[in-house]
Amino acid sequence: MTPRARRNKSKFFSRKPSKKAKGKSRQGAVVNSAIAVLSLFLIAFIFSFSQRTTQKGISIKVNFPVLPDPKTPTEIYKEPIQDIEVEVLNGCGKSGLAGSLSNHLRINEIDVVRSENAENFEYTETLVILRNEHLPHLLKVIKALGIDESDPRVKKQPDESSDVSITLIIGKDFSSIKPFRNSPDIAF
């Protein structure tokens, strides 16, 4: 026998593949096919993504608002409320006047420590009474009320036992002071 014939008849070359080997080769073919399909999907995804990122669509313009120059601390600084302690007493009996006048004084940076009714409602005139020696405090309050310093309703009666700088008693002439002038809703 020739060596070639011997090789053909040998067990090594003449064996038929077993069923296990056929199953493994099919399984390998399925896995390879799946990898090929997934590779195609990946390439398609990358292509699609690159097209979307490089696509020239509607341009979006962002406009930031122009902000004013920042203010310096000296521009922001506001004078603190002065050490003027005022009590506002309703001496005419009209409801809500003491509260309204207190709000007006607070807007004008005057500290109202008390706002209540007077001992009676028989005051015909509004009185501004200075209880200590601080004339600038009195001037600031009467300016906020629109009253002149020479007005007879402005009184200087120092009282060391008082815990306030100024006592303001609202009388029946309340419509003559600045916050209540020309107020048709507040009438006696």
Describe the structure.
- The protein is built from six helices and five strands.
- The chain has 188 residues and is of the alpha/beta class.
- It has two domains: 36 residues; 105 residues, Alpha-Beta Plaits, CATH 3.30.70.
- The longest helix is centred in the first third of the chain and has 36 residues.
Number of strands: 5
Q: State the order of secondary-structure elements, H for helix, E for strand.
A: HHHHEHEEHEE
User: Biggest sheet, strands in spatial order?
Assistant: 2-1-5-3-4
The geometry reads as rod-shaped
Backbone structural class: alpha/beta
Question: What is the CATH class of the largest domain?
Answer: Alpha Beta
**N- to C-terminal separation?**
143 Å
Poorly predicted parts: none
Number of spatially distinct domains: 2
CATH topology of the largest domain: Alpha-Beta Plaits
Number of helices: 6
The biggest beta sheet is recorded as:
5 strands, mixed
In short:
The protein has helices spanning 3-9, 11-14, 19-54, 73-76, 97-107, 135-145, and strands spanning 85-90, 111-117, 127-130, 154-156, 166-170.
What key attributes describe this structure?
alpha/beta, Alpha-Beta Plaits, 13% strand, 188 residues, five-stranded mixed β-sheet, 6 helices, single chain, rod-shaped
